[in-house]
Every structure is written in C-alpha cells, then in structure tokens.
C-alpha cells in the first residue's frame, strides 16, 4: 500500500509532459559535447531539469487557480512547486556565483516563460504557438551548456542550436498531426511543408544535417493517418532526437 501511495505521489510531482524530456536533454547534451564536459555540467543539468519542473507546477497552479471549482486542485501543486523551486535554488546559486553570465541567460529565457504562464492562465497550454515558444529557451540551453564547457560560443554551437530549433519546432507540428489534430488536413499539410523547408534550411547550415532532416520529413509525410499508438509516436520521437544529436556531433567532429 505504501508503494502504491509513493507511486501516486511521484506521478503528482513529476510533470506528465513526456515529450518535453527529449527537448530538455538533447540541446543540453549537444552543447556539452560540443563545448566539452566539465564538472559544472553535473550541477547545470539538475538545475535545468528542476527549473522545468518548477515552471510546470507554477503553470498548473495558475491554471487551476483560475479554472477549478475545487480549491484543493491548485493547492496540490504548491508542495512540488516549493520543493522543486528550493532544489533549483540550491543548484543554481553556486553556478550563478561562479558564472554571473548565467543570470543574463536566465533573463533572456524569462519572457518565454512569462508567455507560457499566460497560456496556462488561459487554459491554452496545448496551443501550437505556446509549444513553439517553449522550444526556444530549451534550444537556447545548448548555447549555455556549450559556453559552460568551452568558455565561449562559436558558430558551431549556433548552428547546432538552430538545428535543434528546426527539429523541435517541427516536432510540435508533427505530434499535433498524430494526436490532437490527427484528422486535420490543414495541420498535415502545414507539417509536411514545414519539414520540407526545414530540410533546405538544415542542409544550408551543415550538410551533415541532411540525413536526419530527410528522415524527419519522411516521418512527417508517412506517419499521419496511420492510426499509430501514442506510445509509438513517443518512441519514434526519442529515436529522432538521438539521431539529431548523433549528426550534430558528427558535424562537429568531421566538418565538411
């Protein structure tokens, strides 16, 4: 019984946005691989994940405070909000003291977080625009992770960050065609057109990116309308994320 209660408590604390984890981890790992892993990455990664968990529960509290008739519903997010927030501060403060430029990075991310709060307040978290807005600071973490390791941000890091932005923006559109907008021909066409343009943009950035972005285009064209289970959609996106990371690193190690 205690194990069952523990699992329920864990589900209440851990955000249920499963697709977000790849978006959080891939840019971070790409930046660390390009800039070089250092000990401070072991503090930056938990700080980054804790920031996301804190933001998630803050948004849920704002949303439910406005919409729910049950006063206990928003309150369920207060303990995770406080717990994750406190843990984030413990990780973030030493990093900010050692690297004050991280405060500027956080300031740059703040407007995107503010927009996500507004969408949560309006109960429109799943809106396409809101999803794309959330992608921007996640991909910006690549630059932060890279600079933490290398001490600077070069053109290779910017190329990788834009590649991540192209991919994860496309993921927002593609997943819509597979789940919430699976019957929408307009979304299906928009996703296919976007992925076609993304191939052109990615190849102009780095020829190494041609392979993954052609794969992304093929899945955006071939998968919608096939009745694929949600779990399979998620598994494919994990594989696509790993593929992107691998080719970003290849482009860095073996520049054309």
Automatic annotation (TrEMBL):
Lineage: Bacteria, Bacillati, Actinomycetota, Actinomycetes, Kitasatosporales
Transmembrane region(s): 20-39, 45-64, 76-95, 101-120, 127-144, 156-175, 196-218, 230-254
Keywords: Membrane, Transmembrane, Transmembrane helix
Pfam families found in the cross-reference section: YwiC
Protein name: YwiC-like family protein
Coiled coil: none
């Amino acid at each position: 019984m205690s194990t069952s209660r523990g699992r329920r408590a864990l589900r209440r604390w851990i955000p249920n946005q499963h697709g977000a984890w790849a978006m959080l981890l891939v840019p971070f790992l790409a930046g660390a691989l390009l800039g070089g892993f250092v000990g401070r990455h072991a503090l930056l990664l938990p700080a980054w994940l804790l920031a996301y968990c804190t933001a998630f529960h803050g948004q849920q509290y704002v949303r439910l405070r406005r919409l729910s008739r049950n006063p206990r519903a928003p309150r369920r997010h207060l303990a995770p909000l406080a717990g994750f927030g406190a843990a984030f501060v413990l990780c973030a403060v030493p990093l900010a003291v050692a690297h004050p430029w991280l405060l500027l990075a956080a300031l740059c991310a703040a407007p995107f977080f503010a927009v996500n709060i507004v969408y949560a307040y309006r109960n429109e978290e799943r809106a396409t625009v809101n999803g794309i807005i959330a992608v921007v600071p996640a991909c910006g973490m690549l630059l932060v992770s890279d600079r933490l390791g290398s001490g600077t941000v070069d053109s290779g890091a910017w190329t990788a960050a834009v590649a991540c932005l192209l991919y994860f923006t496309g993921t927002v559109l593609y997943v819509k065609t597979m789940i919430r907008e699976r019957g929408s021909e307009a979304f299906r066409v928009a996703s296919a057109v976007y992925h076609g343009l993304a191939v052109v943009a990615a190849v102009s950035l780095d020829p190494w990116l041609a392979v993954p972005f052609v794969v992304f285009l093929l899945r955006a064209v071939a998968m919608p309308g096939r009745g694929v289970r949600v779990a399979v959609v998620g598994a494919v996106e994990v594989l696509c994320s790993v593929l992107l990371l691998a080719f970003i690193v290849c482009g860095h190690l073996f520049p054309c």
